[in-house]
Amino acid sequence: MSNAIDRVDPALAAGNRRPQAGYKARHFLWKVTEGVATVTLNRPERKNPLTFDSYAELRDLFGQLKYADDVKAVVIAGAGDNFCSGGDVHEIIGPLVRLKAPELLMFTRMTGDLVKTMRACPQPIVAAIDGVCAGAGAIVAMASDIRLGTARSKTAFLFNRVGLAGCDMGACAILPRLIGQGRASELLYTGRALGGEEGERWGFFNRLCAPEALLAEAQAQARAIAEGPTFANGITKTMLHQEWAMTIDQAIEAEAQAQTICMLTEDFARAYNAFVAKSKPRFEGN
After folding, report:
1. Do both 247 and 204 map to the same domain?
2. Are 74 and 124 in contact (CB under 8 A)?
3. Parent domain of 270
4. For the chain, does the N or the C end have fewer beta carbons within 10 angstroms?
5. What is the Cα–Cα distance from 54 to 5, expressed in whole angstroms?
6. CB neighbours of 23 closer than 8 A, spacing ≥ 6?
7. CA distances, 246 to each of 182, 240, 250 (Å)
8. Residue of 197, 224, 262 whose CA lies nearest to 126
9. Is the Cα torsion angle 62, 120, 52, 84 positive or negative in sign?
10. pTM (two decimals)
11. Are residues 152 and 248 in the same domain?
């Protein structure tokens, strides 16, 4: 158990720790096209559940994306008609009931580290959510920067349905910021599913797409981001995350310093020169 939790993918643990286009994923599909990396959870026959190993590999992957200079944005999706059904009942839930507190804490810290690395990686993450999006799958969606859904998607933070608290992997901190305290409380106390149209009204989804167009629209959204100023986008993501813990005065000062750094980039000069020339800027991320 502890070995599975602590395992680091060999491709990331080797001398080159950059999960670029040639990275060989073991527990999901990985593809990089035009600066957009697509992570596909690929166990459609089980609605794409997570295992100890896939948790750990996702944690390591997102943790190392800061070194991937050919990845400008990330899409995370599920194979088939579902996003992710959460932790695998047989491969995770079953073993957990036999563990002692120290080992359980290792597991809950490891799963929380996945959310931390998703929020800390500089690339914006677009989640393409169709069908079942439950438990840890709902958390992965929550931890993404932008969420595209479908009318048939069902998102459930169902921890209390299995006798656990709703405070899992940052849910009590992040979910209220997305949809409000009252709505988050309802979902975390009841474990009920949030439908696609309701999720869009509540602000959990940025927009809904037709199921057959979902992945393409998510990749198009990510590609539009990837075509922007990569360094500046990374700063925006960092500030969106860090300013949760700041006062307004602290946030204004932090943004002043961050924007000063962005004004020193070549992309800032490229944007000005393109404006003068009445052309579209071509950002290069420096």
Report:
1. no
2. yes
3. 230-276
4. C
5. 10
6. 11, 12, 30, 61
7. 23, 11, 6
8. 224
9. negative
10. 0.90
11. no
- Asked if residue 281 belongs to a domain, the reply is no
Whether 138 and 266 map to the same domain: the answer is no
**Do both 248 and 145 map to the same domain?**
no
| Residue 283 is assigned to a structural domain of this protein | no
Q: Which two tokens stand for residue 5?
A: 């939790």
Q: How far apart are CA 74 and CA 219, in angstroms?
A: 8
Residue 143, SS3 per DSSP? helix
Which tokens in the block code for residue 49? 């559940």
Amino acid, res. 201: R
Tens digits of residue pLDDT in 200-220: 999 999 999 999 999 999 999
Locate all alpha helices (DSSP H) within 124-170, ordered by sequence: 136-143
The span from the CA of 11 to the CA of 67, in Å, is 13
What does the buried/exposed string (b/e) look like for 149-160 if buried means 16 or more CB atoms within 10 Å of the residue's CB? bbeebbbbbbbb
Give the number of other Cβ atoms within 10 Å of residue 202's Cβ. Answer: 16
Q: Give a yes or no: residue 244 inside a domain.
A: yes
Token reading at 252: 């204004």
> pLDDT tens track of the chain, all 286 residues?
333 334 444 444 443 455 666 788 899 999 999 999 999 999 999 999 999 999 999 999 999 999 998 999 999 999 999 999 998 888 888 888 888 999 999 999 999 999 999 999 999 999 999 999 999 999 999 999 999 999 999 999 999 988 889 999 999 999 999 999 999 999 999 999 999 999 999 999 999 999 999 999 999 999 999 999 999 999 999 999 999 999 999 999 999 999 999 999 999 999 989 989 999 999 998 8
Residue type at 234? G
C-beta separation of 284 from 267 below 8 A: yes
